[in-house]
Amino acid sequence: MAVQQRYLFGTKGQRLFPWLLLLPGLGFYLLIGVGPSLATIVYSFTDATGIKGFPINWVGFENYDDFLFQGARSSDNLDALKRTLIFMALVTTIQFAIGLLMAVLVNQKLRGRLMFRTLFFVPVILGVAVQGLMWKLFLRPGGGPMNDIFGWLGLESQFLAGSNAFYWVIVVQIWANAGFTMVIFLAGMQTIPADLYEAAAVDGARGWQLFRNITWPQLTPAINTNFLLNIVGSLQAWMLFLVLTGYKNGTQVLGYVVYAEAFGGTGTGSFRQGYAAAASVVLFLLVLVLGMAANFVVARRERKYMS
Amino acid sequence: MSVVAEALSDTVHSDDGGAKRRRILRKVVSYTILVLFAAFYVGPLLILVAASMKSLPEFFKNPTGLPDSLNFQNFADAWELASFPKFMLNSLIYTTVATALFVIMSIFVAFPIARGYVKGASALLTLYVVALFLPPALIPQFQLILNLGLYNTRQGYILLFLINPIGLIILVNYIKSIPRELDESAAVDGCGYFRFVFSILIPLIRPAIATVTVIHAIGIWNELILATVYLTNDDLYPITRGLIVFEGVYGSDWPKLAAAVLMLMLPMLVLYMFLQRFIISGLTSGAVKG
Question: What is the rounded distance in angstroms from the CA atom of residue A216 to the CA atom of residue A230?
Fold first, then answer.
C-alpha cells in the first residue's frame, strides 16, 4: 500500500504540483471509467434510449421484471443465461486443461519449446476481428478447409451455420485464449525450486508422482489465477459471437444480449438502453456471485496447500 | 567387496537404461501432442495464406490445398476495395494519440500515488483496483459521449481509451521499486517536481512504460465493439471495423477477405516478434498481480 510521505520538491504553492498534474488522468478515469460504471446501475431503473434529447424516466424494477420474467423475450433471455453458464463451464474447464497441458509440455527441456510457446500465444494478441474472420474462413460450410477434413473423416457439419454453431464458437474461444492460460501456468512453474524435484527424484518419485506431489500443489497461485480469470473472462466473453455467428436465437450469450439491446443489434432497430443496463447488471451480479464462489474454493485450496 | 561394487554398478547401469527409455518415450509423446496443438494453431493461418493467393474459382474448387501460383493480386485488390490506407491511418492515429496521452497522464498519476506525495494515496490506488469489480460502463459511457456531442468524432473515440486501470497499477508497482533516495538527492540539488519526473523518473521506468504502452496500444488496435458503437462515418473507421464492413460487402469473395485479414494481422505479428517479452509480461502481469 502507498504510504503518506513527506513531499520533497519545494514548499507552499509547489506542493500543489503533484495534484495538478495528477488531475487530468484521475479526472478522465472518473469521468469515463468509474462514473459510467456506477451509473449503469442507475440507468437500469430507467427507460433510457440511445436517442439524444429523449426524456428519461424512472421505471423502478420494470426492466428487470421485463428482462427476466414478463417481457416478450424473457424466455430467450433465460435461455441466453443458461447458455452463458454452459459457455463458462466448457470454456473454463477445457481451456484450463489445455493450457496446463501446453505449459507442462513446453516447460520441459525440449528443442523448439520457445517456438511452440510463441505460437500458442499468438492468437491472444490478434483481436476478435482477425480471430473470428480467420476461423470463419476455416469453418466455411459446404466447401472449406474444415469441411474437407470432416469429409476425409466421413463426418458432416454445417459448422457456424448449423445447429452446433455455439460449440464451434467455444472451440474458437479456447483457441484464442489457451495461450494466455499457458503463460500464467508457465510463470508459476518457473518459480518452483528445482531442488524439490531433485529431492523427490532421489526418493524414487517420477513422472506423474512428481506432477501430483510437487507441481500441482506448488502451482496453487497460478491455478487459482487461471481458474478465476477463466470463469470471469468466459462469462463476459461474447465478441467472437458477433464476428462468427451474428445475433441469432440459439447462440446468443448474455453479454451479446446487452450489446444488441443497447445498440440496435437485435434486428428490431430499437435502442433499449435502460433494459440493456438491467441486463448488464444481471450479468454483473452473475460474475460477482460466481467469482466470489470461485474465490471461496480457491481460498480453501490455498489454506490446504500453502500453510 | 568387488561383488557388491559390481552389483551396485550393475543396478545403476540398468536403472540408467530404463530412465533413458522413459525419457525417450516421454519426448516422443510430448512432441506428438505439441505437433498436434501446433497444427491446430498454424492450420488456420496457413489456410488463410494459401487462400489469399487463389482466385475465387480456384478457391471454390480447392479451398484447402496449396494455390496454383504465387499471386498477390488479392492483396492489391483488397487494399483498394477495403479502403485500407484510410482505415490503417485512422487506426494509427487512434492508437498513437490515445496511447501517448494515456501513458503521460498515467505517469503523473502513478508517481505521486506510489510515493505518497498526495493525500489519500492509498484510497486513490484502491479506486483503480476496484475498477475490476465494477459493472461495465458501456451504456452510460455512450450517453455521456452522445451528450457531449462527441458521438461519431475522432476526439470522442480517443477519449474512450484514456483509461486503463491495469496499466496504471503496473506503473505504480514499478515506481515503488525505484529507491526514494533518488527523489531526495534530486530535490536537494534543486530539481523541481516536473523536471524530476521527465528527466529522471521516466528514463528509469522505461521497462514499465514499454509494457504499458504495448498492452494499451494492442487493445486499441484490436478494438471492434467501441468502433462499432461510436463511429458510423466510414471516414473515421479504424481498420478492425473496416475489415468487418469489407466482410459484409465482399464476404463471399474469400480470397480477397483472406488477403485483407492478413494485412490487418501483419503489423501485430511484426510487433509481437520484436516486443514479445513486453507483450507477454504486460498482458499477464495485471492478471498475476490481481
Answer: 18
pTM passes above 0.80: yes
List, for residues A141-184, the tens digit of each pLDDT value: 777 778 888 888 888 788 888 888 999 999 999 999 999 999 99
Same domain, A216 and A268: yes
CB B116 within 8 A of CB A4: yes
Pick among A30, A37, A231 to test the B interface (most B CBs inside 10 A)? A37
Domain total in chain B: 2
Tell me the pLDDT tens digit for each residue of A239-256. Answer: 999 999 988 877 889 999
Mutation site for A-interface testing, chosen from B20, B97, B122, B138 by largest number of A Cβ within 10 Å:
B138
CB A1 within 8 Å of CB B133: no
Chain centre to alpha carbon of residue B68: 35
The confidence band for A6, taking pLDDT boundaries of 50, 70 and 90, is confident
With a CB cutoff of 8 Å and minimum separation 6, the contacts of B173 are B114, B208, B289
Asked if B26 reaches chain A (Cβ–Cβ under 8 Å), the answer is: yes
Q: Are B10 and B95 contained in the same domain?
A: no
What was the ipTM of the complex prediction?
0.87
Q: What is the DSSP secondary structure assignment for residue B180, as one 8-state letter? A: T
Whether B58 is covered by a domain: the verdict is no
Q: How far apart are CA A156 and CA A142, in angstroms?
A: 9
Same domain, yes or no: B238 and B276: yes
Range of the domain at B170: 73-289
User: Could you report the per-residue pLDDT of B149-174, keeping only the tens digit for each?
Assistant: 999 999 999 999 999 998 999 999 99
- Domain membership flag for residue A113: yes
Q: Does B72 touch chain A (CB under 8 A)?
A: no
Chain B partners within 8 Å of A32 (Cβ): 137, 141, 144, 159-160, 162-163
